């Protein structure tokens, strides 16, 4: 039996398709939405429609943006010799917040994962190579996630780009600052050892 | 700095207002929505608009529904002598799934909570009393949540309804079936002791 009626059930189903939202959270969200003042509910719906409608990929870095080139790429004060390659916009924002990196970014929108059927052609790799042709890029910093897919992507890109005479680096893996060695996993500890530097 | 541009930031903000959704989940959801096929994103937005637009309170039990009276109230085969009072539609559905209760429901849409400024007038109490006037109700089963607010609501309702000559009961509190005594809290254990029955 459909206890909630068709309209609420449809809303629950739609919400449950969002990432990280299970059946119970979707129910909670649906009842919350139904109890919102009308203008608040409509404002949420219009934010969804507008975002999907107006967002485009930045012609330079492939970030999702409402103006192209995006705010980051449209900045002559940044370092033209460096491009950091990340998997998604959130990784880019995470690095921007450090205020340490002054170069440009390139967003792949994913990582190579043969199991999930994602190869280089599903990622923004072609667009990255196009950028290397007409700029004075000296270094590509690969900041894909520290997991199998991220590592595979890093290896693939380095093999593709190194022959062009451009330096390819990968961000360091090791014990997180403020972390406790006791809680670090073996792989991280091994990588931290491999990456040791003289002090 | 607004790293994501205005449109995505607005969507993230709107999503972060939903219950149980923090800043990180809202970001994940926003990027998921922006990457959806257009018709899927628009379908989500329209489900929200439609639900908020068309959902009404059932004139009998105050459940949220698209037809009034709702499916549950519009059923002559149920037991007219019993009304179970719950805080929200999810509690009603939870009881419906047990297939144990064959009476009718009344949804309060909350519980008395002086700290949150919610008194009886914010709940569907008036509507409950109206139902007692013109039906042959013999028993009100109070199934508000087992916490301070739910207990206060149960006490308030019992004082209001008992003088009308109607039996008022409360669902049992005790150790959950399949649970382990070791992990039950003191209050639950005390309630389970108080509610002991001869076997």
Overall description:
The structure is a homodimer of 199-residue chains. With 199 residues, chain A is of the alpha/beta class. The first copy, chain A, is built from 7 helices and 6 strands, in the order H-H-H-E-E-E-H-E-H-E-H-E-H. Chain A has helices spanning 6-16, 23-35, 38-54, 89-98, 125-133, 148-161, 186-194; strands at 56-57, 64-65, 82-86, 104-107, 139-142, 167-170. A 4-stranded parallel sheet of chain A has the order 4-3-5-6. A two-stranded antiparallel ribbon of chain A has the order 1-2. In chain A, helix 1 crosses helix 2. At the A-B interface, helix 1, helix 2, helix 3, strand 2 and helix 4 of A face helix 1, helix 2, helix 3, strand 2 and helix 4 of B.
List how many beta strands of chain A DSSP finds. Answer: 6
* Multimeric state: homodimer
- Could you say which overall geometry of chain A the principal axes of the C-alpha atoms support? globular
Class of secondary structure makeup of chain A: alpha/beta
- Sequence stretches where pLDDT stays below 50 over 5 or more residues of chain A: none
Beta-strand content bin of chain A: 5-15%
* Distance linking N and C termini of chain A: 68 Å
Main sheet specs of chain A: 4 strands, parallel
Largest chain-chain contact?
A-B, 61 and 61 residues
- Tally of individual helices of chain A: 7
């Amino acid at each position: 039996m459909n206890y909630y009626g068709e309209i609420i059930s449809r809303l629950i189903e739609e919400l449950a398709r969002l990432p990280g939202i299970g059946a119970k959270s979707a129910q909670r969200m649906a009842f919350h939405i139904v109890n919102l003042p009308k203008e608040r509910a409509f404002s949420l719906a219009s934010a969804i429609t507008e975002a999907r409608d107006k967002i485009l990929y930045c012609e330079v870095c492939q970030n999702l943006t409402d103006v192209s080139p995006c705010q980051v790429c449209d900045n002559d004060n940044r370092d033209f010799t460096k491009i950091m390659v990340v998997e998604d916009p959130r990784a880019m924002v995470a690095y921007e917040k450090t205020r340490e990196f002054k170069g440009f970014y390139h967003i792949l929108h994913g990582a190579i994962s043969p199991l999930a059927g994602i190869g280089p052609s599903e990622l923004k790799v072609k667009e990255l190579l196009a950028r290397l042709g007409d700029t004075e890029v000296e270094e590509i910093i690969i900041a894909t996630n520290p997991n199998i897919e991220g590592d595979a992507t890093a290896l693939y890109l380095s093999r593709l780009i190194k022959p062009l005479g451009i330096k390819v680096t990968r961000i360091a893996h090791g014990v997180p600052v403020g972390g406790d060695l006791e809680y670090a996993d073996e792989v991280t500890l091994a990588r931290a050892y491999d990456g040791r530097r003289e002090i």
